Automatic annotation (TrEMBL):
GO terms for molecular function: ATP binding; ATP-dependent protein folding chaperone. The keyword ATP-binding applies. This is Uncharacterized protein. It comes from Pseudo-nitzschia multistriata. InterPro entries: ATPase_NBD, HSP70_C_sf, HSP70_peptide-bd_sf, Hsp_70_fam. Residues 544-564, 786-797 have a biased composition (Basic and acidic residues). Residues 538-569, 770-831 are annotated as: Disordered.
């Protein structure tokens, strides 16, 4: 499971692994395919399935969630401010050493009152690492190996799915989060909609369902917990093209939960208004309970035919219970404002792709929120179709597509070529000389064109791609990249950071030179400087002609034009510096990595302490009754040993639940050792009582086997190659072992069960091994090989003897060609 794809959702994460048999979604320790996207900071961190359910509510102040909507945003970004109002934990700004707006960080307080500031990117990275450990543990179980270090099986090649509307800073933040926690080999940040399309198309492509003459157009509608995305993809043999994509991050499954949650809060206030000291909305824990009940009601009402759902909340607030019925008709009516947002992205996507609904072969819906009944009905009305296709797994399609892309990119797999044409969502502009009235760009034909900026990466452009602009400059100058003003029409908030990157390019001072600025949008969709080059045309002087050529040249006619000098283009790479808003320096990354290492060490110590406490507790309860029961260990302990162990066991149990509750690992290990010092000998006697008869029986059986062989072999000519000394050695060893067995059995017969045995099963097994080492080589001694007599030499003919008639010798087999051999044919009698 070295090659994986990861879908990081707002609420849940899904990881899939590529293998020889295809793609498999990996189950967590609770055998669930969905892993809560949460990290709880308490005395030790708990992640994913470890903080599911009531834990995420009871520890809401230290349980970090919704990282997907905060990562890569400035603290004062309108989107970040809106999201921070929804989360129950404390968010704080964290500055960058390079300057610029601060990013979002979380402030967590441990049980000792110590505060820790952790950037949200690192928290996201923790979830990614946790998912990797799930894959590593599953790989360890599947291999059946005794690998003690599960981290050795950690996935090496990753593709992580991200929303298509993520900005450059958000993409960099995801990669930085992975870098902080030590995730190796992130091959690509892949758009979620592209991953879904890949999962849909690649297997159909194998079945030859697509044609090159007429590409198959499919619309994918994805609604997750917090966003809604509409995509049109065209499929051809061996190729996938994203033709258009539009998203709305203001409508998702949680917004439909809010509809029910706000209704519950209102009804609760109506019923208990006079008894309440404050509104439920002011209590984060209360609202988490309400939203959990709202999500449950939403799922109940989603299937067709269900008309109402029962909502039951015990001790919701101030020891007050709340029970009410919620009707589906009311739910649909209250959700009308959300349903009205579904049409615009669909129409816009069709317009950009220059298609109509009739041009679509199917409309696939994915994402957990597409299970809502009236939402599907609304989508059908907008598209004017009778049915929506649900052939894909709504929760797993993204992770499966990411795993397939990971396999395509990984050198560990050999996969048939499959072309993916991506779709850049936001247009990127390159600007220069912003402090001047007018800049100069060198056009393709070499002429100077007045310009200060150009849209380098238009919306819908495939990536990775490199584009360039040529300028005339002397001395150091600045170039910047930012989102074009039109990006606000495609989901970018006007109040968000528009700047992407600033470069300061060091060109030579003096005469103006052509400077070629090469900018790339890499495989992750991140804008980077590929290179900055000074381009010069140099005239090359031809080498002096040879003597004969010179003479010929002298004979040339007068007035003939001289030969033109050759021109050579010289490119010189220029140095440049780069600054990006919301970017961490290497020193800051190292600092966060050290914090992560310290947190892991704390987690390890806490886990080892917990394991030791559980081991001690288990031993106390396991031995408490066994040591006193004659049917168990009681028969193998003296009364004094029983009394001593019972007292020590009770004292340790009392200590464990009082003073030892917060004891360190070494103290717990010491207490366990003291108990085992008393209980160990008794357990050993019981074990010996079970194992010793088996070992003795095996030994006696072996002795009898060799004695029988001695009796048979000495009178059998087949063993004539065995010497009398070897027979004697085997006989003596059998007698020696047999005598030892009878002696030990006599001693053991006079001993009680509650004292140490006269001999152990291990000693009997050692004797058995020694017997086999002596006798087995003799028993299996091979017979000597018979002597082979050398052939007698025939007398040589006399020198004057007539030569043999060669014609009398048998002639060689005739062949069609010299040296060719023919196979002999076997004669077969036909029945």
């Amino acid at each position: 499971m070295s090659v994986v794809g990861l879908d990081i959702g707002l609420q849940n994460c899904v990881i899939a692994a590529a293998g020889r048999g295809g793609v498999d979604v990996i189950l967590n320790g609770n055998s669930n395919r969905l892993n809560p996207a949460m990290v709880n900071f308490d005395d030790s961190r708990k992640m994913g399935e470890q903080v599911a359910g009531s834990t995420s509510i009871s520890k809401f102040k230290t349980c970090i969630r919704n990282m997907k909507r905060l990562v890569g945003l400035a603290f004062d970004d309108p989107r970040a401010q809106k999201e921070m109002k929804r989360v129950p934990y404390e968010c704080v700004p964290i500055p960058h050493a390079s300057g610029g707006p601060p990013s979002v960080a979380v402030k967590v307080t441990n049980s000792e009152g110590e505060d820790t500031i952790i950037p949200i990117e690192q928290v996201l990275g923790m979830i990614v690492h946790h998912m990797g450990m799930i894959a590593a543990k599953k790989a360890s179980e599947a291999s059946g190996s005794n690998v003690t270090d599960v981290a050795a099986l950690f996935p090496q090649d990753w593709v992580i799915a991200i929303p298509p509307y993520y900005t450059d800073a958000q993409r960099r933040a995801v990669l930085n989060g992975c870098k902080i926690v030590g995730i190796p080999g992130v091959q690509r940040l892949m758009h979620e909609n592209t991953a879904t399309a890949l999962a849909y198309g690649i297997f159909k492509d194998i079945r030859k369902e697509f044609t090159k003459e007429k590409p198959t157009n499919v619309m994918f509608i994805d609604m997750g917990a917090s966003a809604y995305t509409v995509t049109i993809a065209a499929f051809e043999p061996g190729k996938l093209t994203i033709k258009s994509c539009n998203s709305d991050d203001s409508v998702g499954g949680r917004d439909f939960d809010d509809v029910i949650g706000n209704w519950i809060a209102e009804k609760f206030v109506e019923k208990y208004g006079k008894k309440l000291s404050c509104a439920p909305q002011s209590k984060p824990k209360v609202m988490l309970k309400i939203l959990a009940a709202a999500e449950k009601a939403k799922k109940t009402l989603s299937p067709q035919g269900v008309k109402e759902a029962s909502i039951n909340l015990e001790c919701l607030m101030e020891d007050l219970d709340f029970n009410i019925m919620f009707k589906k008709t009311d739910y649909e009516e209250m959700s009308a404002p959300l349903l009205s947002k579904l049409e615009a992205p669909i129409k816009k996507t069709l317009e950009e792709a220059k298609l109509t609904t009739a041009d679509l072969s199917s409309v696939e819906i994915v994402g957990g929120s597409t299970r809502i009944g009236f939402l599907k009905k609304k989508l059908q009305e907008i598209l004017g179709i009778e049915t929506l296709s649900t052939t894909m797994n709504a929760d797993e399609s993204v992770s499966r597509g990411a795993a397939l892309q990971s396999a395509i990119l990984s050198p560990r797999f050999k996969v048939l070529p499959y072309e993916i044409v991506e779709y850049g969502s936001l247009p990127v502009k390159l600007a220069w000389d912003e402090d001047k009235d007018q800049g100069m760009e060198v056009a393709a034909d070499g002429t100077d064109t007045p310009a200060n900026s150009v849209v380098m990466f238009t919306r819908g452009l495939n990536f990775p791609i490199v584009r360039r602009v040529t300028l005339r400059r002397d001395g150091e100058f600045k170039v910047s990249s930012s989102y074009d003003a039109s990006a606000t029409n495609y989901g970018l908030d006007a109040g968000s950071t528009q700047q992407i990157c600033n470069w300061s390019i060091k060109a030579p001072a003096g005469e103006e030179k052509k400077i070629r600025v090469n900018v790339k949008q890499d495989i992750h969709g991140i804008v980077q400087m590929s290179s900055a080059q000074m381009v010069e045309e140099i005239e090359e002087e031809e080498a002096p002609p040879a003597k004969e050529e010179a003479k010929a040249g002298e004979e040339a006619k007068e007035g003939e034009a001289p030969a033109e000098k050759k021109k050579k283009v010289k490119r010189t790479n220029l140095d440049y510096t780069e600054t990006k808003p919301l970017e961490w320096t290497d020193a800051e990354i190292t600092k966060f990595t050290q914090t992560e290492t310290a947190l892991r060490n704390t987690d390890r110590i806490v886990q080892e302490t917990s394991d030791m406490r559980n081991e001690l507790e288990s031993y106390i309860y396991d031995m408490r009754d066994k040591i006193t029961m004659d049917s168990s260990l009681g028969a193998y302990a003296t009364q004094a040993e029983k009394d001593a162990f019972v007292k020590k066991n009770e004292d340790t149990e009392n200590w464990l639940y009082e003073d030892g509750f917060d004891a360190q690992k070494d103290v717990l290990a010491q207490k366990l050792g003291e108990l085992k010092k008393l209980g160990g000998p008794v357990e050993k006697r019981a074990e010996e009582a079970q194992a010793r008869p088996i070992a003795v029986a095996s030994l006696q059986k072996n002795v009898e086997k060799y004695k029988k062989w001695l009796a048979d072999a000495q009178a059998n000519d087949d063993f004539a190659h065995i010497t009398e000394e070897e027979f004697s050695t085997c006989h003596k060893k059998c007698d020696e072992v047999s005598n030892w067995v009878y002696e030990m059995l006599d001693k053991q017969g006079s001993l009680a069960q509650n004292v140490d045995p006269a001999f152990t099963a291990a000693e009997a097994n050692t004797k058995n091994k020694g017997l086999s080492n002596v006798c087995s080589p003799i028993v299996h001694k091979p017979k000597p090989k018979p002597k082979v007599e050398a052939p007698k030499e025939e007398p040589k003919p006399a020198a004057d003897a007539p030569a043999a008639d060669k014609s009398a010798e048998p002639a060689p087999m005739e062949t069609d060609e010299p040296g060719e051999k023919k196979e002999d044919k076997m004669e077969v009698d036909e029945a």
